[in-house]
Amino acid sequence: MSTSTASAAGTASPSGAIVVYVTVPNAQVGEDLAAKLVEAKLAACVNILPGLTSIYTWKGKVEKDSELLLIIKSRHELLTELTAFVRANHPYDEPEVIALPILGGSPSYLQWLMDNTRGAGAGADTATDTA
Fold this sequence. Notes:
This protein is an alpha+beta fold. It has helices at residues 3-9, 27-39, 79-89, 107-115, and strands at residues 17-24, 45-58, 61-75, 98-101.
């Protein structure tokens, strides 16, 4: 299933906001990717959590790696573009990019998230910085 198909087939976030998980191999990659996402207004905020151990199958072999987790706050309508951006700027052949809907939360925080990410079809400079 393609990324656009997967995001379109899923349940839309009632708030319009999403959390996206992306794993990275080290802090430098995480910080660089996080900064680029925020600068491009594809994310309002990115948290970087260290200390992750990932166990997965890759090319028929069980692997175990230390990683960090990026928790990216964005808009559902930006998921396809955000996914493409991560794939273009990530060192992994197949980076993890999975999104979860934000069902609700602090109205002022959710408004801040929307104000600091691009709207559909808008350029990177259209969002306001209220933080």
